[in-house]
Design goal:
The chain is built from 14 helices and 23 strands. The protein is α+β, with helices and mostly antiparallel strands. The longest helix has 19 residues.
Length: 469
């Protein structure tokens, strides 16, 4: 059966109907706004482009943008809605980490939790990396940002997006929330929980969410979310903040989960969030919850450019804070390895990297975040910036180092225009003509995108195979 009232026929390319029971529920919740909401389910979703402010400003990107940019996203100063039919995910600027493609509504959680440079921040369910990269940019690449993903199949994508972003303060972990809480205790200044949910807010772009939806699924998600959020609360230091977000409209998964948290953790209270254009306050009356939960925000697709979202910010009461874990101090580079690194850096880089932040793991060398804590036996996938690997009598740079560098921080540079044949050949893994010798940073219109090595008039390609177009 297909949903047809209010002229809300399904998109032509979709055989999956919007569940009628879901629509009945939303009609009761929204009242007079329901027809507009139902009609919005027919609209073509519009994506957003968030500029990587670690590499350039949104104004600078606007001057060089190869795409038609729409209006700025009201709650995210570094982002624009996209209006055209281009495929910005395939553009070299994307591979250089100049922007991240994301639903505008999904940009709200990082902005609402508002981290500061130098803080300790945890993104508890981080894949594929949209909110992690956003948090890293807001932190200016300073402090500590732990991006955790429990699912093995998703953590690789998260790590790759972090590498492309070029942030030096991110540690990617592959752990359960419980193990993180057992290890760290109340350690973080800010914890973001973008919880797995029934996905009602994605109904107009995710046919799988439509097909899977049921009231039993909503109830099951609410139980899982409660458990995750209760563990997350244990990771927030006294005086710290916890932001809970979902991409569902179901009050059982939104206000209902928050109500159970503040009942079980009375030292947390809801902080009233700003009402940006199109935002609605939380609806505690939908689940007979405390009035304070109206300080949360709801995002509906008929009111703004973006999909459905919910966010609630909570603050923990001030109190005595004692760190359970200490700092993982570096013992420095072994003499022979230090010589190989210094020789490479002297001939290749024009920036000094603090050797006290360097960590050797096997043959790899990492540039870790400042004041990195002791992670004990927790599974770490990515710690700061992978600088490269020690080979026999030499140091070989890694792709993430190129993306970490800013314009002007490399001695040997081979710049290519975004629309040039040479760049297309380089991104396919081909050798291209070049002047000079030795390790060279390949740039696209001035922004680092990878490594090459000049040998006898050619630039041998070191762009990673998994990234090739």
């Amino acid at each position: 059966m297909y949903f047809t009232p209010y002229n809300c026929s399904m998109p032509a390319n979709s055989p999956v109907p919007v569940p009628l029971l879901f629509l009945d529920r939303m009609k009761k919740f929204l009242g007079d706004e329901f027809p507009a909401f139902a009609e919005s389910l027919n609209a073509i979703p519009r994506s957003g482009l968030r500029v990587n402010t670690l590499k350039l400003t949104s104004s600078q990107f606007k001057l060089i943008s190869p795409f038609e940019l729409g209006e700025p996203v009201p709650w995210c100063p570094a982002a624009f809605s996209l209006t055209g039919e281009e495929r910005p995910g395939l553009h070299p600027y994307h591979m250089a980490g100049l922007y991240y493609l994301q639903d505008p509504s999904a940009m709200s959680p990082a902005e609402l939790i508002a981290p500061h440079p130098g803080e300790r921040v945890l993104d508890l369910a981080a894949a594929p990396g949209g909110k992690t990269t956003h948090l890293a940019a807001l932190m200016g690449g300073e402090g500590l940002l732990v991006a955790n993903e429990i699912k093995n199949k998703r953590v690789g994508h998260l790590a790759q997006n972090v590498e492309r972003w070029g942030a030096g303060n991110v540690v990617v972990t592959n752990e359960s929330p419980e193990r993180l809480a057992d290890h760290f205790g109340p350690y973080f200044d800010r914890v973001l929980v973008d919880a797995p949910c029934s996905g009602e807010g994605m109904f107009r772009k995710d046919m799988g969410a439509r097909a899977d939806w049921s009231l039993e699924m909503v109830a099951g998600c609410a139980v899982r979310q409660k458990n995750i959020l209760h563990v997350a609360a244990k990771l927030v230091r006294p005086g710290g903040s916890l932001l809970y977000s979902t991409c569902t409209f179901a009050p059982e998964e939104d206000e209902g989960v928050i109500a159970r948290l503040i009942e079980d953790f009375p030292d947390f209270e809801v902080v009233r969030l700003p009402q940006f254009p199109g935002f609605l306050p939380g609806k505690p009356e939908w689940v007979d919850a405390a009035a304070s939960i109206s300080g949360a925000v709801r995002l509906f697709p008929h009111r703004l450019t973006g999909e459905g979202h919910f966010a609630c910010l909570l603050q923990r009461a001030e109190g005595e804070a004692r760190d359970r874990v200490g700092i993982a101090w570096s013992s420095g580079l072994p003499k022979q390895l230090a010589g190989l690194w210094r020789g490479f850096a002297a001939g290749t880089l024009q920036v000094d990297l603090d050797e006290e932040r360097m960590l050797v793991a096997g043959e790899r060398l990492y540039y870790t975040p400042q004041l990195t804590p002791d992670f004990g036996r927790l599974r770490i996938v990515h710690s700061g910036v992978w600088l490269g690997s020690f080979k026999k009598e030499r140091f070989e740079p890694a792709h993430p180092l190129a993306l970490f560098l800013k314009p002007g921080q490399a001695k040997n540079v081979h710049d290519l225009a975004a629309d040039s044949r040479e760049l297309k050949a380089y991104l396919r893994g081909e050798t291209i003509p070049a002047i000079g010798s030795g390790w060279t940073v390949v740039t696209v219109d001035g922004f680092p995108i990878g490594w090459g090595k000049g040998v006898q008039g050619t630039l041998k390609n070191h762009f990673p195979r998994g990234w090739m177009v």
